[in-house]
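Good morning N.,

You mentioned wanting to compare the apo and holo forms, so I went ahead and generated the holo version with thiamine diphosphate. This is what I fed in:
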Amino acid sequence: MSSNKYFKHEGPWSDASDPLMCSDTGDWRTKRPIVDKDKCIFCGFCAIYCPIQVMEMVEESYFSPNLGFCKGCGICAKECPKNAISMMPEGDFKK
Amino acid sequence: MTDKKKENLTKVMDYLKHKDPFSKGVAFCPGCGLELLLRFIPQVIGNDIVITGTPSCSAPVLLGQNNQSWHTLSYFGTLMTGAAANATGLARYYRKAGIENTVVCFNGDGTAADIGFGNLSGAAERNEPFIYICYDNEGYMNTGIQKSGTTPYGATTTTTPLGSAHKGKNLRRMNLALKMAMHKIPYAATATLSDLDDLAKKLLKAKEAKKRGFAFLHVFTPCTTGWGYAPENTIEVCRRAVKTNYFPLWEAVNGKIRMTKTVKKPKPVSTYTELIKKFAHMSEEDLQILQDDVDYEYCMLGGLSLLEGECQLPVSSED
Ligand SMILES: Cc1ncc(C[n+]2csc(CCOP(=O)(O)OP(=O)(O)O)c2C)c(N)n1
Ligand code: SF4
Ligand code: SF4
Ligand code: SF4
Ligand SMILES: [Mg+2]
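and this is what came out, ligand included:
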């Protein structure tokens, strides 16, 4: 993992030369964004507005969320000009 | 990809030239405007920046925890009272040592408008070579949503609750960005998350301007948890703040103000407040007070933007 350039330690106490910390924020989700590939016009608004920046380009033809980290805020669905994203209850996906 | 599809891609993508230095899973609330802003900045102006900032909602992520960090940027944590003084030291050191980078002093409204305003104003007056970004979520969110100088009239916070004596904040908000522009610094601007192309341009301009001295950005950054609106509405809240002139977008080069977006038919401020629970109790009279304040501020801004050239000081005549 690359360390930061200017300090051995960042701030008074954290060290970026260690692997970065990362929480499974996908676990927080109560609703899951589902993208309808056919409706998607590849405008990228969902991607630029996603606070976590987890809307990833797929085959350069549509966007899909990285569910490991997507917090389910629903911004992508709200901002999509084609209503190509629906927020489905997370419970529907649990066995 | 078919070229036709590629044509549809928003131009904002063109500004995202650098990597997002943050780990994917970090501790901001779902829908937090601050998270989008923090990930956006280094993607636009690059990772070769030193961020310095204070205790706030940004700190748990910027500062790291238990000796580990959430990102690969260089970060230096300071006290709320001396953020801009610390940034001054960093920026002067790099300048003296001949190291070319960008110091970004990144703080909430609590530090920028209230607790650390004195040294912010001082750094601007001395024209120190760094960028100061205030992310304005209109209150002290990290300590439990207390009111700050930028909390607007009527808004409920934990220190301006609904009660028999008062209904929310009974004072107006201060205009921090305008105050900073009045320092006649090389660059001052307002921005928000609905207009990311505007924000990107202003970040790049601030990076250029800091070669000439102080650059200040005031970014309207809604807080879903503290304001009480649905997390999916973060961008819509920003959009309506702009469309009602509640938060106008402008920039000032050496104090000369220019609107970067003008709204043809501004909507009533109630189309903004209706999305947010902190305003839910406001009566029509209360909303009118807020509307009058919005109109007054906008009018003042418009007037200032019409000023041409340098102001001539009046010459006093003898006798
Ligand atoms: C001098 C001082 N006073 C109070 C505090 C306690 N404190 C820690 S975070 C915080 C809130 C900061 O508010 P703001 O800068 O607006 O950032 P936000 O939490 O809203 O992101 C406060 C008051 C402190 N750290 N230092
Ligand atoms: S906002 Fe909607 S249409 Fe645009 S890329 Fe995302 S899913 Fe596709
Ligand atoms: S729901 Fe929120 S976090 Fe998940 S992809 Fe959409 S915008 Fe990103
Ligand atoms: S309290 Fe507000 S500013 Fe703080 S992390 Fe949550 S949404 Fe963001
Ligand atoms: Mg704040």
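Residues 18-305 of chain B form a domain with the Rossmann fold fold (CATH 3.40.50.970).

Happy to go through it together on a call whenever suits you.

Best,
F.
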